[in-house]
Amino acid sequence: MFEKYAEVGGDIAEVRIYNTALDATTISNTMQTQLAGTETNLVYYTRFDTDANGKIVDLTATNNSGTLNGTAKVSGQLSLDEDSSHTFSANEFSTNYLYTDTDAFNGIKVINLPTNGTLKLNGNDVVADQIISSADIAYLIYTANSNFSGADRFYFKAVDSTSETSNTEALNITVIAVNDAPTAQDKTISINKNVSTLLSASDFTYSDIDNDIMASVQITTLPTVGTLQYYNGTSWQTVSSNQVITKADIDANKLRFTPVTNEAGNAYATFKFMLNDGIIN
Hints:
Blueprint: E1 14-18, H1 24-30, E2 42-47, E3 55-56, E4 66-67, E5 78-81, E6 85-87, H2 91-94, E7 105-112, E8 117-121, E9 124-125, E10 131-133, E11 140-144, E12 150-160, E13 169-176, E14 197-198, E15 216-221, E16 227-231, E17 236-238, E18 244-246, H3 247-251, E19 255-258, E20 272-276
Parallel strand pairs: 5-13
Antiparallel strand pairs: 1-2, 3-4, 6-11, 7-10, 7-12, 8-9, 8-11, 12-13, 14-19, 15-18, 15-20, 16-17, 16-19
């Protein structure tokens, strides 16, 4: 228990708890570097950010998460939507990371690259240890990998006007999941002559990269021959253009196709449709 304390001004960016005392050299070498959460003797580690939403997350295997009272943040956090890009500005590195060298900020040295996205400068891939001038940072673009959402990061050092570099820092990136539209493929089914055939959800070849469940079918173009019919609870009615039919109704055998009497043939009839995942077609 501490009997004395001293007030310290400033912001708390993160909390680290070790089960042993660290020497001054280790503290100095790691105090400006983001941890992985797996370091020896580290039993608790959390970083505060503007998306804390009242929660703090333990990034070690101990997993002692808790509740945040008040406000907390880490400067330099980047958030962007899934399948999008972000163009950087120099002050994201010189201001957010509190660059305090008396020499002017002159750019960054990229130490290693993000694992779930790409960094490009003027359309060219950035490589490890590449130095990017402060003027050129305006042409530095991060693009998340296709359909990726979650945490990403890359490490950099600030470079001053004499080409000296700072300690290594991490730029932490949060890619926010965005609902993707489901997809469908053409499909051919065979039916018997003069027989009304019930359609099933599998006839519409639904696929969704977000693993959302099929919600409905919209009939955008009516059959070239024959009739699509929907059972309204009392009788079978002809489907109209752009009518939406829920998967629940399809599963309940309320959608069928009826050919013209005594007609048959290959590629006999076609109609077009769109699928919906509950949010988007």
